[in-house]
Amino acid sequence: MTGNDLGPGERTRVRRLPGKAQYEEATIHSILDEARMCHVAGVVNGSAMALPTLHAREGNTVYLHGSQSNALMKAIVSQGEAFVTVTLYDGLRLARSAFESSIAYRSVALFGPATEVTDLAEKSRVLDMFVDAILPGRASEVRPMNEREVNLTMVVAVQIEEASAKVSSGPTEDFPEDVDLPIWSGTVPAALQFSDPIGSMNGAMLTGEIPVPDSVVRLLGSQ
After folding, report:
1. What is the number of structural domains in the chain?
2. pTM for this predicted structure
3. Do 104 and 189 form a contact (C-beta atoms < 8 A)?
4. Would 11 be classed as within a structural domain?
5. Distance, first Cα to last Cα, the chain
């Protein structure tokens, strides 16, 4: 690896459509940060397993979390390595042929050593970072996790040893012989959209006097 590149490496090198590959640190970080969830892969009792989970990034470290009984999290810590992927679905790329039609997306695949975070203060800090990764500003609005809750949660740090991004965007590509066919081609953009918040009417919420928090207001205003 040179400069600000995170790859390519043997585990994450893009081999199919390598022209869509990007290995720049800034691109990989931006996709990881925008993705709402990831998939983690490992080997559990001799069998391959992948699960969706939440993640948060700090520098070239991706943090994962789950219950202390999570077999996959325990396995990647035991084996000392993890494979993580994220995908952002950006829409449809509709060509004049089925073969050339595809989706618009941005994805990242990364590999690196996995270790458990056991220090109580560090776990608490990272778990707050998870909350703010999901909804910026929310960690300061809620009751902090107590020691029991922190101890019930397993936090795993995955150092990005190698990574690649794959980006499919822009206009569709047609075979030259298809260009004049009377078939519509183009792109249909897609984006994640949040709807109006619905309060849970229990406890103190029954009075209807608790306003929508600033974190949610900012989230909706950013759309």
Report:
1. 1
2. 0.89
3. yes
4. no
5. 36
Give Cα 187 distance to the centre of its chain: 24
Report d(CA 158, CA 69) in Å as an integer.
19
What is the CATH number for 128?
A: 2.30.110.10
Identify whether the C-beta of residue 164 lies closer than 8 Å to the C-beta of residue 21: yes
Predicted pLDDT of residue 1:
42
Residue 40 φ/ψ region, left for φ over 0, alpha for ψ in the -120 to 50 degree band, beta for the rest: beta
DSSP 8-state symbol, 153: E
**Residue ranges in the chain modelled with pLDDT below 50:** 1-2
> For 69-105, how does the pLDDT look when each residue is reduced to its tens digit (9 = 90+)?
999 999 999 999 999 999 999 999 999 999 999 999 9
Whole-number Å distance between alpha carbons of 25 and 46: 33
Helix (H, G, I), strand (E, B) or coil at 78: helix
User: What is the reported pLDDT for 132?
Assistant: 96
Residue 2 lies in a domain: no
Backbone φ and ψ for 39, nearest 5 degrees, come out as: -120, 135
Give the model's pLDDT for residue 8.
72
Reference 185, options 176, 198, 172; nearest CA is 172
Residue 39's Cα: distance from chain center in Å? 8
